[in-house]
Amino acid sequence: MCRRENNDLSGNDVVQSFITGSGSFPTFASLNSQLRILVLSLLPSTISDPKNLGTVLHFIYLSSGEGMGGGIRQLLEQVHRLSRRSLFRVLSMGPLPTHLAFIMDGNRRYAKKRGLEDGSGHKAGFSALMSMLQYCYELGIKYVTVYAFSIDNFRRKPEEVQSLMDLMLEKIKSLLDKESIVHEYGIRVYFIGNLGLLNDQVRAAAEEVMKATAKNSRVVLLVCVAYNSTDEIVQAVKRSCVEKADRDVERIQLVDIEENMQMSVAPEPDILIRSSGETRLSNFLLWQTGNSQLFSPDALWPEIGLRHLVWAILNFQRSHSYLEKKKKQL
Amino acid sequence: MDFNDPMLALSSSIGQIGDFGLDLVWRFIHIVVTLCLIVSGIFELVESYAISLGLIQKYSSIDIEKLKCLAVVVDIEAARDVSKVIELLRWLTTIGVKQVGVFDSQGLLKKSKDMILEMVPRSVLLQETGENNISPDSIALEFISSFDNKEAVVKAANILLQKYLKSIHPENGEGENVFTESHLNEALRVVGECVHVPDLLLVYGPVRSHLGFPAWRLRYTEIVHMGSLKYMRYGSLLKAIHKFTGVRQNYGV
């Protein structure tokens, strides 16, 4: 999240600065003649999305030498960002998934492979998650679900569980501290799972984030923590039974259980990606993935990148009409 | 005002040309993807024939004891060709698999179960024999459809509801919690469902998806995509089973 804040200058700010001369950017009038011609020639290609115009102008500003203080690194990141946006523009010519789910597998193996200390794999995994969320948001995918911590993971060594809980608390709190970023991107966060199994601090922080982001509606992030699909089904059955008993009704229907599933706040996932090449679902979203395309890239979670996401989406686009037909058959 | 209309028309035309260009690029990317998949398909085809002919050493023996329960998911279009399903089950019998659950979403194979049981040698219906009574030289078959998925959980939930309603009435005196995984498991058995978790699920269809296989049973199942049933290959089947026997799960620990 921090990295995104430094580089994600609003396209509108740059456009405004060019016109009014306010802020730290040069105006159109102050550019040399070659750069003015360049801006004018690039205008038509950015006309469909004004944000692209801001990005292009910012790129020109950096390449004009006046932003050299920002560094070559920023310039390269802007180029990377522009090419990524172009790629996403091409991908959006076909159907795009509405909901993507990730099983973030392979953090410990990554740490072992790189000779890092215990716990570093999970930190690297968190960075990979932030990158993935950024790509999904840029592509316009509205729902993203991640399997952060399974009920089975409580059976790991106590030190490892504690360090995972500490990392989770730190990252959840960082969402609160930088609340403006969550609001700026309009991310609504849900924590899905048996939250009663978490310690008080983590549970309280999670509830606070859910409350703070309740009004956001652009993008939804569902973090499955202390979650098992079978536990979710049992809890949904329990809630349905208690409701029916309260209303003195003696029959449960499928719609009652579906409404009481915690994941009912999102549509079914279109694609489920499990990193590290394992082919099982490990008790994740079993109820919801009847029509989902399953994808298992060999990369460990901290190694996951844009190419894996793009490959998954290209395959989704190839299978889209088949899966739509299947949904209608049920 | 007069100046704006041609400008708007111009920018709209530029936009349309831009979209047309992007669409061409998109189609070109998909052609490249298709070519990559064709090339990898050819390699897999050659490999599977080599495996079938016994040319690749490591596939000549498989530790089949590790595979207690196999499930096969068949796409609804493929399920109409029962002869292919029978051929697949015969291959599995040859390999030595003891228990196979065959799933198609609409239950077409359930309707043909008598014919399948007749045509697959030494096959028995799992429900009749029970999981623990399968003789060593036979294969137990189970026929599953979408009705065994969510609808089965609804039936089991109604059993738990009855138990719950009884427990909250004072005259009975019962106060136990009836909402645990083992309670739901037991309720599923009562409504006639097999709750055995398959070790391996082979998907025969265009897409790698479990297509609505009973969710309750899929917890730790390895899900492998085998491609189309029409073009199924014995070598690919051996390879998938062999790969499964090498998998080591830690079950979240």
Automatic annotation (TrEMBL), chain A:
Its cofactor is Mg(2+). It comes from the Eukaryota. Keywords: Transferase. InterPro entries: UPP_synth-like (IPR001441), UPP_synth-like_CS (IPR018520), UPP_synth-like_sf (IPR036424). Signal peptide: none annotated. It is an enzyme of class 2 (transferase). Catalyzes cis-prenyl chain elongation to produce the polyprenyl backbone of dolichol, a glycosyl carrier-lipid required for the biosynthesis of several classes of glycoprotein. This is Alkyl transferase. It comes from Brassica napus.
